[in-house]
Amino acid sequence: MATLLDRIQSSLAKEGLRPRTQQARTWLQSKVRSLNPSEKEFFRDRERTVKSPFIGRMYFFYYDPKTKDKLPYFDRFPLVIPVEPYNDGFLGLNLHYIHPRYRITLLDKLSQTATDTRFDLNTELRVNYQYLKGATKAFEAMPCIKRYLYSHVRSRFIEIFADEWDIACMLPMETFVGAGTSKVYAESKGKF
């Protein structure tokens, strides 16, 4: 059975559009508005699920923050690029904290650190906190930097392959608890 990302990739190909081009992104923006994807659709593809994430790749997963009672809001189903490992978790960029147009802009900037230009199963981003802190060009990343504890991850990690990063960024999968997306986006924009 074709997964949601497979179906979108196939539709892109039928339209004659190459992934990671402006034409493809414009098409995706209009297409994803008509989609109503669910988190469960992503878990159907067992080949994508992994127990732990790799630094520099992209993942969806369920998360229940340790300090959720103290947070004004949080994302229950984050889209994260891990950037630094810790013994008990990792530091990552949760792209859901910024508007989709800024996600794409940030992704373009971070793509300059990619391990290759093929954007395939082996592609990773070479970013860490020091890079993000010093990268004045990647200012959109600042509101996205979040700490995740493995003990509060409530699912396996669903890997999003590099040729699907644009698609995943555009999907309306953010699941904020405590605030709506307009508030989250407004507060995040105030940080860059």
Summarize the structure in words.
- This protein has 192 residues and is of the alpha+beta class.
- It has one domain.
- Helix content is 31%, strand content 17%.
- The chain has 7 helices and 8 strands.
- The chain has helices at residues 4-14, 22-32, 39-43, 100-111, 129-134, 165-170, 181-189; strands at residues 49-50, 58-60, 74-75, 79-86, 89-94, 145-149, 157-160, 176-177.
- The strands form 2 sheets. Strands 1-7-2-4-5-6 form a 6-stranded antiparallel sheet.
- β4 (79-86) and β5 form a beta hairpin.
- The N and C termini lie far apart (41 Å).
- The mean pLDDT is 87.
Structural class: alpha+beta
Strand order of the largest sheet: 1-7-2-4-5-6
Number of domains: 1
- Helix percent reads 25-40%
Terminal residue distance: 41 Å
List the uncertain runs. Answer: none
Taken from the alpha-carbon principal axes, the silhouette is globular
